[in-house]
Design brief:
This protein is mostly beta strands. The protein is built from no helices and 11 strands.
Length: 119
C-alpha cells in the first residue's frame, strides 16, 4: 500500500496558477500509474490527469487539456500537477491516487487538497 499526501492547494484568482504535489511513502511509485482526480461540491469525482508507470504516457480530461500538466519524479517519490489558466469551475478538492501497474483500479488515495478559484 502507498500512502499519499497532497499539498499545494489554496485560493487563487481566475487566470492564476498553482502547483500541487503528491508525496508518496511506504513503497516506491516506480511501478505505479499515478493520477489526479477532483471532486467539486455536489458533483461526482472525476479524473483530471494520469501518468503511466513506464514511458511517461499522460492523459487529461478534455476540460483541462492545454492548461494542466502532470509529471512525476520517481527519485523523490512525488507526483505533481501544474495548474495554469485556472477557472472558477476548476474549484474542487483535488486527490492524488496510485494504481499498481496492470491493475484496473486506483486503490490508494490521498486525503485531498482544496483548490478554490475566484472569479
Amino acid at each position: 500500500q502507498v500512502q499519499l499526501v497532497e499539498s499545494g492547494g489554496g485560493l487563487v484568482q481566475a487566470g492564476g496558477s498553482l502547483r500541487l504535489s503528491c508525496a508518496a511513502s511506504g513503497r516506491s511509485i516506480n511501478n505505479y500509474d499515478m493520477g489526479w482526480f477532483r471532486q467539486a461540491p455536489g458533483k461526482e469525482r472525476e479524473r483530471v490527469a494520469t501518468i503511466s508507470w513506464i514511458g511517461m504516457t499522460t492523459s487529461y480530461a478534455d476540460s483541462v487539456k492545454g492548461r494542466f500538466t502532470i509529471s512525476r519524479d520517481n527519485a523523490k517519490n512525488t507526483v505533481y500537477l501544474q495548474l495554469n489558466s485556472l477557472k472558477p469551475e476548476d474549484t474542487a478538492v483535488y486527490y492524488c491516487a496510485a494504481r499498481y501497474k496492470f491493475l484496473s483500479n486506483y486503490n490508494d488515495w490521498g486525503q485531498g487538497t482544496q483548490v478554490t478559484v475566484s472569479a
